[in-house]
């Protein structure tokens, strides 16, 4: 353990990037390592192996590639879909829209099941779609960061296995891996897409994808060439195999410092003797409950319409009528607490979002949630008071001068009345 401590900074509680531990940040600050050198190779191998543990897979193949979570969509589309093939996408918000756009850019025919704002696609809707047509891919965003809606991954995998066993089930877990339970093998999930900067608790910059052997076989036997170069699993698979076997290999330079940092985050997630993965999931549920209960006490409404479909790593909250998200976000920022507004294209001006993943949820001794809750209460009170003051000023401006609270006693109307008497 190092004695390194992070410099004082604003508390980052957006839905990612998130706060990271001192050890994770320190690991990222080490001198660069040679990507094919004896020091780095075993660290990369560790990161690959521990990634499997987080999503509960024995045989899934991790791909750790420099890039954002968006690169995961490209990997799925480039390797698993061929022009003219059909994909079913369960759309719960902004990131469902973007995933669909990515698939279409590679020639997929995308059929969307669109849930109403704040809701998830139901089991009945999914079953009806899979009975009506066969799909190469069944894709969904586990937690849509735009709405905090949580899709039922276990149900989706089970329904697909029962009604469309030939389909590949693709889970976009950028905002859910390590903060929500994902049992890849048991739930019939073929690909998990994620990124380093959210529940995985590392700095941004690593695209994290785990593919089942079934998915790898589909990619290997496709008829059309892989519609990508950097995103091609045929190029990356030997590299990942080599690193895990402790051997040097090269296709493109991995983000060595970020991998070291990510490995440290995975050690904290999977090797903590006091906290199992199940304990961490419970900690995220507890953190979410604290934020939700606070919102309820303040008379605020959550964006997700159903508790069963509400994420545990983030919360989306409607602002009261008469206020804008900026009224809350800007006031919390002045208190050193960084939250963010909505991004859903139709409702972005109606709500704001708070992230509570990783160390913020799991390490209560940091006091992050206490600060967030206190800051939210104060900011809401200040915003309401400011609004009331502004309304009172407007109303006062509308009054005739003789009725204005600021008019002197015995004003002009009183004089005029007296003169008539």
UniProtKB/TrEMBL annotation:
GO terms for cellular component: peroxisome. Gene3D superfamilies: Aspartate Aminotransferase, domain 1 (3.90.1150.10), Type I PLP-dependent aspartate aminotransferase-like (Major domain) (3.40.640.10). The modification N6-(pyridoxal phosphate)lysine is found at residue 198. Signal peptide: none annotated. Its EC number is 2.6.1.44. It is an enzyme of class 2 (transferase). Keywords: Aminotransferase, Pyridoxal phosphate, Transferase. One of its GO terms (molecular function) is alanine-glyoxylate transaminase activity. Residues 387-411 are annotated as: Disordered. It holds the Pfam family Aminotran_5. Its cofactor is pyridoxal 5'-phosphate. Substrate binds at residue 353. It comes from the Eukaryota. InterPro entries: Aminotrans_V_dom, Aminotrans_V_PyrdxlP_BS, PyrdxlP-dep_Trfase, PyrdxlP-dep_Trfase_major, PyrdxlP-dep_Trfase_small, SP_NH2Trfase/AEP_transaminase. GO terms for biological process: glycine biosynthetic process, by transamination of glyoxylate. Belongs to the class-V pyridoxal-phosphate-dependent aminotransferase family. PANTHER family: ALANINE--GLYOXYLATE AMINOTRANSFERASE 1, AMINOTRANSFERASE CLASS V. This is alanine--glyoxylate transaminase.
């Amino acid at each position: 353990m190092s004695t390194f401590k992070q410099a004082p900074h604003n508390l980052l509680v957006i839905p990612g990037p998130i706060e990271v531990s001192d050890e994770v940040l320190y690991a990222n600050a080490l001198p660069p390592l040679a990507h094919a050198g004896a020091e780095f190779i075993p660290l990369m191998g560790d990161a690959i192996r521990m990634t499997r543990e987080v999503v509960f897979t024995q045989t899934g193949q991790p791909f750790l590639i420099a890039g954002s979570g968006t690169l995961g969509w490209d990997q799925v589309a480039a390797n698993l879909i061929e022009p003219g093939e059909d994909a079913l996408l369960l759309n719960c918000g902004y990131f469902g829209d973007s995933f669909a756009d990515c698939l279409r850019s590679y020639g997929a025919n995308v059929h969307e099941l669109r849930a109403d704002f704040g809701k998830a696609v139901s089991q009945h809707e999914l079953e009806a779609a899979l009975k009506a047509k066969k799909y190469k891919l069944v894709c969904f965003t586990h937690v849509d960061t735009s709405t905090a809606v949580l899709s039922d991954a276990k149900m989706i995998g089970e329904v697909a296995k029962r009604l469309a066993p030939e389909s590949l089930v693709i889970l976009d877990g950028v905002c859910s891996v390590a903060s929500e339970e994902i049992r890849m093998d048991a739930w019939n999930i073929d690909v998990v897409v994620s990124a380093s900067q959210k529940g995985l608790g590392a700095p941004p910059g690593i695209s994290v994808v785990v593919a089942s052997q079934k998915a790898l076989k589909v990619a290997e036997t496709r008829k059309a060439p892989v519609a990508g170069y950097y995103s091609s699993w045929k190029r990356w698979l030997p590299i990942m195999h080599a690193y895990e076997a402790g051997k040097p290999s090269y296709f493109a330079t991995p983000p060595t410092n970020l991998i070291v940092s990510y490995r440290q985050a995975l050690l904290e997630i999977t090797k903590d003797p006091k906290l199992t993965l199940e304990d961490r999931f419970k900690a995220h549920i507890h953190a979410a409950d604290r934020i939700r209960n606070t919102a309820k006490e303040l008379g605020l409404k959550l964006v997700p319409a159903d508790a069963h479909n509400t994420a545990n790593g983030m919360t989306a909250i409607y602002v009261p009528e008469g206020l804008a998200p900026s009224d809350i976000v800007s006031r919390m920022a002045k208190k050193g607490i960084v939250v963010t507004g909505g991004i859903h294209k139709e409702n972005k001006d109606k709500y704001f979002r708070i992230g509570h993943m990783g160390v913020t949820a799991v390490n209560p001794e940091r006091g992050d949630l206490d600060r967030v809750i206190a800051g939210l209460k104060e900011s809401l009170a200040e915003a309401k008071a400011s609004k009331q003051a502004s309304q009172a000023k407007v109303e006062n401006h509308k009054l005739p001068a003789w009725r204005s609270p600021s008019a002197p006693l015995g004003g002009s109307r009183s004089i005029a009345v007296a003169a008539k008497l």
